[in-house]
Amino acid sequence: MNDIRLTWLGHSCFQIDAAGITVLIDPFITGNSAATVQPEDLEPDIIAVTHGHGDHLGDTVSIAKRTDCTVVCIHELSQYLKSKGILTEGMNIGGSIELEG
């Protein structure tokens, strides 16, 4: 995998593009003065959320609903997101998961 692109989108938000998959990490865009994009500009295959603080969870719900992508996060946060109609994969600290290859 020689073609990996890591892009900082502001504050805690990063986008990783590799092997035709886009992973968005901590999509705090709305209300983030450092954000370089708008939430509607993003088309992730997977969103990874490190924890539930607002400056990390950010626009996860709206982006995940619009794109129908999977959100990977800590188990308790995955339960909250499921209650919002989001497809999630919950895991525990130190765990691992394989999605989209």
Query: What is the approximate shape?
Result: globular
Number of helices: 3
Number of strands: 6
Largest sheet: 6 strands, mixed
SSE topology string: EEEEHHEHE
Major sheet: order of its strands? Answer: 1-2-3-4-5-6
What are its keywords?
alpha/beta, 101 residues, 3 helices, 6-stranded mixed β-sheet
Protein architecture, described:
With 101 residues, the protein is an alpha/beta fold. The protein has three helices and six strands; from the N terminus they run ββββααβαβ. It has a six-stranded mixed beta sheet with strand order 1-2-3-4-5-6, covered by helices on one side. A hairpin with a 2-residue loop joins β1 and β2. The protein is globular and about 30 Å long.
Task: Please give a quick description of this structure.
By secondary structure, the chain is of the alpha/beta class. The protein is 21% helix and 30% strand.
List the helices and strands and how they pair.
Blueprint: E1 4-10, E2 13-18, E3 21-25, E4 46-48, H1 54-57, H2 60-67, E5 70-74, H3 75-83, E6 88-91
Parallel strand pairs: 3-4, 4-5, 5-6
Antiparallel strand pairs: 1-2, 2-3
